[in-house]
Predict the structure of Histidine phosphatase family protein.
Amino acid sequence: MTTEVYLVRHGETMFNQLNKVQGWCDSPLTIKGINDLKRTAQALSQVHFDNMYSSDLKRAIDTVHLMKDVNQVSEIGKIKKLPEFREVFFGSFEGDDIADTWEQVSLAAGMLPEKNITKIINQVGIDEFRQATKKADPRHLAENKQELDKRMVRAISVLRDLTIKEQRVLIVSHGDFIKTLAIKYWNRSDGKHDIIFPSNGSVSRGILYNNGQFEIVDYNVDAENI
């Protein structure tokens, strides 16, 4: 049996609004974030889910409970929190200004100073961007490509074990983690280059096969188009 997986990005947070690096650190949902999520929740209100899951970060937990409360056709019990689906970890940069952080990463990648992440990734590639982030981190705690890839594989394996008897599930995760999953598992990605960052409250849909294989079939779909 296959399992249909709805991957929802959490709503906008205070750190999103303030342009601060937000990986494993957390900040509350904004009013805009909650209102955007209500539209997503309403769009999914008539979709039956056998279960709902979330990252173990509070912004994801708050999001999944909003999805659960609005859904009219699912009977969801206690939400299981999965640390494997946390956001990418940015180490010492957590909570710092985004533009200043990317400038340091660009220098570590051998570039001239650059504050725009898209320009950095377009020049050096997503894999080198991950390596440069770890290199630029004074404590070298940020996840590099190998560490993140290992965690993604583990996340899919954990989800497969949990959903072996479930036909459709929803899981709330995070923008960079969902994007990186899509780079690896979406057939419209070449697996090497960057793709558009998913919007807050957007839905990406995947298929998890009983042999453990996973693929993204829809990516970054807004509530109005679900």
The chain has eight helices and six strands. The two ends are 24 Å apart (CA to CA). Residues 25 and 94 are 6 Å apart (CA to CA).
